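Sanity check

After download, print the first record. It should look like this:
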Amino acid sequence: MDNPSLLWNARIRSLEKARRALRDRNPEALHDFRVSLRRLGATARALGRDDLEKTSRRIVRTLSPLRQLEVDRALLARISGLGLLSSQLAAGLDARWEERARQGERESARRLRGKRMKRLRRKLSAREKDRPGDLLPRLLAARRQSEETLRSAPDSTDRALHRYRLAVKRARYLAEDLALSGERGWADAATREKRVQEILGRWNDVRLFRERLIGCRREAEVRGSITLASELDRLIPVLTETVESARRDAENSARSLSSSRPVAVRSA
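Expected structure tokens:
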């Protein structure tokens, strides 16, 4: 299927579906919307539409704090359920975070109606008129480049592991583009990379959650909230062990992926 318009149509449908769900405040809508933008960015970059890639990336970044707050609230509920933090203190933290989430939701709603989003949708719709051309060669070239990046296992720094996580996402989305284009063998690669991405994602989530609680611990000390500070002093070391365990899993998964054989591709 060397027809760019079919691939762009798939990206349009995905983005619009996620945008409507976000507007309707459906659960996981923000996550799905950011994923659709990241998929669009990977496709646009591979096909030489850097303007679309940059715009989608900027929108994703503006929504990142709100998404992280969603993740942190879910983790807060989990540790409260496990008895690692009293329900009263957890409810107090969640109430403060909920207010921040409401502010973030109002801001995200404004951005969804803003010029940047309108410009993105207009440019994306124009891609439906693209004629058949070098779709597969471009996708394959971008995928080969992604595989080269993944063959270098990250070092032990948070920055390197985080960058590797993003590289796995891009590689996976390109594999899914190739599978959607009718190329064989790429669905399995996408499934494998999704597993690695999820392991890296768990590490990233608990790492950032721990960082937020460290900030809350500082705030509690400033406010004189002795009980909250004391409970967080007990909780944060437990989370540190969880983060380190998740890090080991992430590093092992990244090393395993980096040493795997690249997917054989046909000559385009």
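If your output differs, re-run the checksum step. Summary of this record's structure: The mean pLDDT is 89.
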